[in-house]
Write a structure and sequence with these properties.
CATH class of the largest domain: Alpha Beta
Number of helices: 15
Number of domains: 2
Organism: Acidiferrimicrobium australe
CATH topology of the largest domain: Rossmann fold
InterPro entries: AMP-bd_C (IPR025110), AMP-bd_C_sf (IPR045851), AMP-binding_CS (IPR020845), AMP-dep_synth/lig_dom (IPR000873), ANL_N_sf (IPR042099)
Pfam families: AMP-binding (PF00501), AMP-binding_C (PF13193)
Distance between the termini: 52 Å
Shape: globular
Protein name: AMP-binding protein
CATH architecture of the largest domain: 3-Layer(aba) Sandwich
Strand content: 25-35%
Length: about 500
Amino acid sequence: MPLIDDLLRHAQDRPHAPAAADPTRSLDWAGLRDEVAAVATGLAARGVGPGDRVGIHLPNSLDFLVVALGAGWLGATFVGLDVSSPPARTVALIADFEPAVVATTATDPPAAGLGAVPTTRPDDLRASGVAVRRPQPPTGPAYLIYTSGTTGTPKGVAIGHAALDASLSAMNEIIELTPSTRSMCVSPFHFDGSYATLLGTVHAGGFVTIPDRASLVFPRNFLRWIEHHAVDVTGFTPTYLRLLAAGRALPAIGSGSLRVLGLGGEALAATDVLALLRAAPELRVFNRYGPTETTIAVAHHRLGAEDLRPGEPVPIGRPHRGTRFLVLTDSGEPVPAGRAGELWIGGPQLMDGYWGAPELTASVLQDDVVPGEALYRTGDIVRAGSDGVFTWLDRADRVVKRRGLRISLAEVANALMTVDGVEGAAAVAVGQAPDTRIVAFAVLRGCSVEAARAGAGERLPEAMLPDHIVHVESLPLTSSGKLDERRLLADAASVV
């Protein structure tokens, strides 16, 4: 596992440099290496070997990182599980990937429902005896990560070691992570966006701090954590950026140690980034794009005021080195620059496939578009500029046709976000053509529904305006911190 090679190198070269910390403890590089080796010994004593899976049902913590690296030490695959998921879902995922063991804690609700699957606590793994010093060559993926995607059915995305190494190397080069980096994890560890910070910092040899996620609901705690640890790099979703903005935390971000912020996981609104850059003009802000199937992120773009026009989509940048973007029509024909089409991705960051689902894998990893080259069909609608910079427009399944007009639901939400007093917005479509209805949900502060509609009408034709705008106190989120569109669709059905 390349990350284990990184771990051993950093521990050899800089044994007493700080490596990682959470609210309860910290480790230098030598300590992290020794603890990972000890946990690997504990896992091996429980029958884990190359090619096995190790479930990790732990909150964001140093324990999570140590167990993940311990699995890699043995050539096994780690699988992060959402600690906030209902027990039934957790048990169903475990039945799908069949772990050799699940690392959990005694108080975790699902632990009693795991049946015959062995469970263990991190402390018990560390106490299993003399650490095995020789890492095992990997067999199988580096990790599995479960995503529902657009189907609603969880599927395990298998990410290989070479794909992970290619992704981390490219991201670290662009973001400029170094051994002097001090990063902070914000997103949950069952969401692969968090690995850009967590695993990217291990790859670079910097210091990663892992706060309690529950405390980060309060912007003041986010700011205190940055100040206490002199954090200079972090990343999170645009939804969390809006939370910080609502808590009036943006000016403080600009006056502290933070120098790099990566935003990803969902579409950005130009108005959000403009507000951030006005408050923190020296901050380097990157939009990062990448479906889970292409390993964390495959494109980055440093955002400046010239990229940000209220109501218009935000560029996602150019593909990483070695990665190829093709924009095609429904029939597989290339789309000229400046025109919208569906994005297909090729290159070293492609997933190995969906765990235990070869037919599903074959439906999205296709080698007949460009003979001899596997390409991932993303379902994302993008546009390539003449300068080679790509812009994400919407999902193919979120572009609806009404009154002869193709309507992007992302464009509807973006238009609402340009209205003063609209702090958040999302749009969904309900019903089938020709009776499709568009329902928008908006977080309004000092703005009426009527004013929001009128303001959006300054940017959108009448046919694109929502049939209903629903005022909400906040937009629903998934456990990954992304917008919960399934919840919105259910709410919209009751409106129309």
